[in-house]
């Protein structure tokens, strides 16, 4: 055997042995972090579940070997209560920390809405100015005509051929 072949075989064997070891260490760290988070839950914590529900913990119960968390969702007028397994809690928000993802989404939505309003108002202004100046509106572009469903082509029906 050539030296490069021996080196290649040794390298592959090392990868086959090292990969499962590295993956198991990573899984142990994640499991430990999840266990610590679950054990540190307390009433009043604001949480996000893995299913995307935001709420505040109002009750913790131990049922056998499982920890059941009851969260309160909604506003003052429309409150709801849901019970989850403690391992379904995805994130616990610290005091004063609010979900940042929602703020970003709302900002993006409001920016898009403002852009739409600005573009629409600009189009309306342009049309008004043209009408004031006596210019006619431009005819519809062919692109709008293409959006209409195409007529079916094929054999004529018996009624059409009889005419």
For the structure shown, list the relevant keywords.
3 domains; 5-stranded antiparallel sheet; SH3 type barrels; 163 residues
Low-confidence parts, pLDDT < 50 over ≥5 residues?
none
Quick one: overall form? Answer: flat
CATH topology of the largest domain: SH3 type barrels
Count of discrete alpha- or pi-helical segments spanning 4 or more residues: 4
What does this structure look like?
The protein is α+β, with helices and mostly antiparallel strands and 163 residues long. It has three domains: 39 residues; 55 residues, Roll (SH3 type barrels); 36 residues. Helices cover 50% and strands 21% of the residues. It contains four helices and five strands. The protein has a five-stranded antiparallel sheet with strand order 4-3-2-1-5, with no helix packed on it. A hairpin with a 4-residue loop joins strand 3 and strand 4. The longest helix has 37 residues. It is flat. The termini are far apart.
């Amino acid at each position: 055997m050539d030296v490069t072949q021996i080196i290649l075989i040794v390298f592959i064997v090392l990868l086959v042995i090292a990969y499962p070891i590295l993956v198991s260490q990573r899984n142990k760290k994640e499991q430990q972090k999840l266990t610590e988070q679950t054990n540190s839950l307390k009433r009043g914590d604001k949480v996000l579940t893995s299913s995307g529900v935001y709420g505040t913990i109002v009750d913790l119960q131990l049922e056998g070997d499982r920890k059941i968390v009851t969260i309160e969702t909604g506003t003052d007028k429309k409150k709801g209560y849901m019970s989850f397994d403690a391992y379904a809690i995805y994130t616990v928000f610290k005091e004063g920390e609010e979900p940042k993802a929602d703020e970003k989404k709302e900002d993006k939505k409001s920016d898009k809405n403002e852009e739409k309003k600005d573009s629409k108002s600009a189009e309306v202004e342009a049309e008004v100015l043209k009408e004031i100046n006596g210019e006619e509106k431009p005819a519809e572009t062919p692109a709008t005509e293409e959006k209409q469903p195409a007529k079916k082509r094929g054999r004529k029906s018996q009624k059409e051929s009889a005419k």
